[in-house]
């Protein structure tokens, strides 16, 4: 018989697991990893309403995508084009970024799998006599290691020609040049930290769902068990 067990700790772990997976996925797909050096407005780029020059534009560059201004749309609201600069994996600008993409993709796949499984932990608490929380926590720890490897390798690719075109000639491995880090990089770091927090917190979720209070509720014949 399926017993639906919901506790504060197990629900918090489930929600955090889902948030972490989505955060890492969104960061990976974003082009806002590097914010390029400001490009001054040309003499032709004059705001028709004020008569002054538009603010300098800062293009952005991601692991496999980029956002840049389109000259013939410079006066419209949609004046930028975002999309992948690499049509296939081999066209990613740096070998280090290719490795970053592999490690991040592996970590995100594991996190998305755990996030999907975590939804069913209310009904299923064990697999082959092993706690599903402990298994998921182990997988989250492994995913965190993949994410760390990817984030460590990413700055090593700042010396590639693509990054130099955005960040200036002084850009090199682990040196940003005229670029700055975008929100996607910080989101990936924050998600990695939360991944390890989830891995540790999974043990608390397991303890909460196997506590004496839960066992007492089961012995009383209750199928829906909600505990603080």
Automatic annotation (TrEMBL):
Annotated InterPro entries: LHFPL
GO biological process: single fertilization
Keyword Transmembrane carried by entry: yes
Membrane spanning stretches: 12-35, 96-120, 132-154, 183-203
The keyword GTP-binding belongs to this UniProt entry's keyword annotation: no
CC annotations in GO: membrane
Record Pfam families: L_HMGIC_fpl (PF10242)
Broad class of where this protein is predominantly found: membrane
Membrane topology: Multi-pass membrane protein
Subcellular location: Membrane
Keywords annotated in UniProt: Fertilization, Membrane, Transmembrane, Transmembrane helix
Source organism, top-level taxon: Eukaryota
Family membership: Belongs to the LHFP family.
Record's protein name: LHPL2 protein
Lineage, top ranks: Eukaryota, Metazoa, Chordata, Craniata, Vertebrata
